[in-house]
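Notes to self, GTP 3',8-cyclase:
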Amino acid sequence: MLDKMGRQIEYLRVSVTDRCNLRCVYCMPEGGIEQVTHDEILSFDELYRVIKETTYLGIKKVRITGGEPLVRKGIISFIKKVKEIKGIEEVCLTTNGILLADYMDQLYEAGLDRINISLDTFNCDRYKSITRRDGLDKVLKAIELGVEKGFKRIKVNTVIIKELNYEEIEDFVNLAEEYDIDVRFIELMPIGEAKGYTPTSNDEIKGIIKMHRKLYPVYSKKGSGPAKYYKTNGSKGRIGFISAMSHEFCQECNRIRITPEGFLKLCLHSNKGIDLKELLRNNIDDYELRHIIKDAVENKPDRHHFNENSEDEDNRLMSQIGG
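result:
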């Protein structure tokens, strides 16, 4: 499945819910959001059908996201079912880690390949301040259990923000040195609540790390994702940098997204796409569904426009779009 830029689209991110058990200050208002009703989100059967049809178009990797995907009932069975679809090579999960330890064994048995865990601090008080909730101990426990369990890869994603956790950069590097995991610094994107905070560029973060360590580039095969990886002397894991703002990588983008209410998003920043829910609930046949998705993907936007005003900007919060 190629778009008009010749990019091979093989990665589908599926948001199964807009609900979350945290209220991170750069993601959601303290009072939460107006949630999509149960009837308005795609059922697991509808999501399964869409995923299955996209495999005929070349989708090989599926990531389950939210909100917080583990708050949705039936998620384990859904992951197992998706894993069994012919043509799907990897099923991954992005989570805040609060419920992860409780579901670790079930996720492993369901065939989940990789887990991304979002974490922005190692300080209990700061964790409560950032997330407006308690639970840092649960997240740290989940990271250890995930490493012990033997998933293909555990990744810890962190967003460094000047007002919140700037002084903890070294602590995240230490984590990658202690465990055979990927610790990835993701630049803050100006979406929703995040617009009120000061981002830190990955070039600046690299400069801070290099004050005390050398960074050695690690080769990653083309299409494996936007992160650029490095290791330090003696580190067990890797340090990754996802620099969507300072070093745009749109020319390598291989993904599309489905929001909780069934909107096929072609670009994180753009509001362009297709309402799959309406099609599904009006009894579209599989061939036509496949054809409509393929046509939409061919017109995937060339690039995001975070650094400029755009009439195509999606003004929803990240939890509503799919993290």
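- The two ends are 23 Å apart (CA to CA).
- The first helix runs from residue 44 to 55.
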